[in-house]
Amino acid sequence: MNFPESNSLQRLPKQFFANLVRKVNAKVATGADVINLGQGNPDQPTPDFIVKAMQEATAKPANHKYSQFRGDPELKKATAAFYKREYGVELDPEKEIAILGGSKIGLVELPFAILNPGDTMILPDPGYPDYLSGVALADVRLELMRLKEENQFLPDYDDLDAAVVQRAKLMYLNYPNNPTGATATPEFFKKTVDFAKQNQIGVVQDFAYGAIGFDGKRPVSFLQTPGAKDVGIETYTFSKSYNMAGWRIGFAAGNADMIEAINLIQDHLFVSVFPAIQKAAITALNSDQQSVRDLVALYEKRRNQFFSAARAIGWEPYPSGGSFYAWMPVPKGYTSESFADLLLEKAAVAVAPGNGFGAGGEGFVRVGLLIDEPRFTEACQRIKKLGLF
Prior knowledge:
3-stranded antiparallel beta sheet, 16 helices
């Protein structure tokens, strides 16, 4: 018997990151010393105090049972306290917070939790490729809003087609931004709330890199904006702030209707997250956040090191203000893909081609700040030998 994939699965886009990993692994298999600047996987360990909390929680038999549906109430209370302490935002733990097995789950499941087939949603271009998975699974109509360097990679809502705006029911944002490293301002988020209210469009702000801001500037939470909870939610992950990428834990916060939709669909898909992981997440949120500050300082040091090494060979970066990425232009005569392939083949340096994040990423490559600083200098020296800059 043959079991063909469903129409929903056949609509799914090719997994960009899986393809990138295959290319890198093939080069490594030749014996090459590949400097991998293409990854987005945190390289530092989870802080010891979080690991210890997990170990202690795992040893307790009570945590070996099914999780509570809709998450540990204590984790939701800790999340509300975290947002109040860090951003001055009031949240109802039961009505305005949903626990996620990593924020990607919330971002992918939300379109088919609140939209119907044929409805329209708007995504940033360039943007995180996995947003497209939710579009495909929900069978909704996709429209893109271009993020341009001259606008600091913030969308200009006046540039959107009026017919698209009229149809749209949901819009995603992501600041600090993957892949560009751009950051949002309070003024931009105010415009966003006004735009959303005027046009009855729900907003989802992906705050995955919310802890990582540079040059003394802390990233702004969308929920700090007056009226934000009327129009949308913010998703947050422990992966980046606490180096817990493999633990798969995050949350969504904000608009009660959206949160209820997430909780309802998860009632049918999951029995929440392993209780011990949730206990460790509580420890992370309730900590003094010194581990986060130390991590941000490391990423800023790496950014500065890479920027210095790149500029020394004539490769000028976009001045990223957050996340752990650098957004780099490709030299004339190359596409994002051909330049990335050349670096991997001739210099054994892996970068992520910008077109993998959408047509708006063409002309750039993404560099991850996830290796030791001396390797940035070595990577740039290898690239210099190609005579491209």
